[in-house]
Amino acid sequence: MTTSPPRADTGSGITAVRSGLALADPLCGDPDASAPTPDFSQLFQQAPCGYLLTDDDGTITSVNDTFLAWTGHQRHHLLGTQLHALMPIGDRILYTTHCMPALSIGGAVAEIAIEVIVADGQRRAALLSAARTPATDGHPAQVRVIIFSAHERRRYERELIAARRRAEESEARRASAEADLHHLAWHDTLTGLLNRAGLTAHLDSLGEHRPAAVRGVADACPPVPSPGTAAHPTANGPLGVLFIDLDHFKAVNDSLGHAAGDQLLTVVAARLQAGVRAEATVARLSGDEFVVIDALANAAQAAALAERLLEALNAPLVLEGLEVVVSASIGAAVACSDQDTPERLVRHADIAMYRAKAAGRNGWAVHDPTTGDPSAGRLRLLGELRHGIEAGQLRLHYQPRINLSSNQIEGVEALVRWQHPTAGLLPPAAFIDVAEDSGLVRELGDWVLNEAIAQAVQWLTAGHTGAPVTMAVNLSARQLGDPRLIDRVAAVLGRHGLPPQLLVLEITETALMHDPDTVLDTLRALKALGVSLAVDDFGTGYSSFTYLKRFPVDELKIDRSFVAGLGTDTSDSAIVASCINLAHAIGLHAVAEGVETSTQRTALLKLGCDLAQGYHWSPGLPAEDLTSWLTRLSAD
């Protein structure tokens, strides 16, 4: 008998169980037994419906506790009596003249409506189903009867329908929220353009779908024209990229305020979109950097497009009552061979943009493949960084992570700095890319991990009041791909004696999705060590939600670019709320970065965010300064 999921018996009646008599019952271990076997006795007695056994003439041979509780009859009164004696005369005739012959001939009776006379003489509506097991060697025929309350059945069906409706509505809301979050994750909330993550996905798609016949031809890259040279578009070519950086944008922000800066960026985005073909792609990478991707056959077409966009951008506009003229530096690159992947073209266009800035700004430059990449500066920086690591020039600063509910310090994040002998204290943005590209980031990461864990143990041993509970350390994409990573982490934890649960390893969303299947194995191995894992810069990448649910992570860290707009930008508030809700929906803690104001803190607290960090509490501090900060905090 197929059944719908049973409800627990509350004692007020019998839960409805749908019957169709392919009996999946507690006697299935011994279908010929005349009474419940010991193995199934408890299941028989506590079945969520009345369950009786009779012989062919309807004499009751066994009855379960559920039926007794529902009817109020005593077991010894029922055993040996006729089943139809529990029915009023009409149902009794129906059972003896219709059901019993049907059982003898067909072996089953489908669900029929009857009334059952209970112990106090009242009648209760019920539904009866029965199946007959023929006699076998040494075992008489047996009829198995299921009786349950019609009232409970109807109530259960109503609840089941309502539950299904709620589940369908919940799924629709989840799907809609996921689609919204995908859109928000791939688009810039200020301008509506693709953001860095959306551009990366678009470039990946271009790389996969561009046919070989148009990836590069011998005459696709004629000599680079000079600025001012007439250049007219020819037939559509393989691919071209323009990298656009606004000149002196910081001065607008500093003098007119961030609202004026945002207005300027919105105007620039609109002018760029109006200045390109409908089929072209425009993206805002970050700050005042934009990228245009179009089908450009050669450098001349790229130069013509750059000239046209500069002319559009140079048109005056009014900000805060002042007329402002926008200027920009544009770098362009065009695919010349199969080696020119979309990502490589963006790098070449970026390099060309710096050449345009060096030439006096408000101009353009096209990447010349015959000159090679001007990488001497990066090589020099790489050499200095390698020497800096060996010479002990790296420093760690620690930023508190605050529990928003208690306003108490929960831990710290270790942030690397480089004390450059001539340039002073450099933030990671000044050297991490070079370290990542060269592979030096593994050596740098090992140093950070060792120093951070040593400091955590020092605080733990000293027993400072309010000392950090956890130490968060960033892992780069290259470190995540290092097959020796697990051994390295285990070795550092063992060497210093830090309990692994006090270490939080932060991995950027982009690094997680680089090779998610391989990364998943690495994350599981790290979790096996006992450490916690966090997804860093969440919302800036393009996570697959399927993978996100599978990753054994503990925290989602919401990127500071979204936190900055809390209280002032409804789109940013929506993104932050979605990120927090998503984190909680899959059982993770939500952590906000870059909290600078009490307004942002209050908004995060109302949204249910768990942890936060930022200048509102403290910037990253050297260990000794953080110790003093903690001392002052505990004194207050």
Automatic annotation (TrEMBL):
Keyword set, alphabetical order: Coiled coil
Coiled-coil annotated residue ranges, if any: 153-180
PROSITE patterns: EAL, GGDEF, PAS
Record domain PAS: where: 36-83
Domain of life from the UniProt record: Bacteria
Keyword Secreted (UniProt): no
Record-annotated GGDEF domain positions: 237-369
Name of the protein this chain belongs to: Diguanylate cyclase/phosphodiesterase with PAS/PAC sensor(S)
Span of domain EAL: 378-634
NCBIfam families: GGDEF, sensory_box
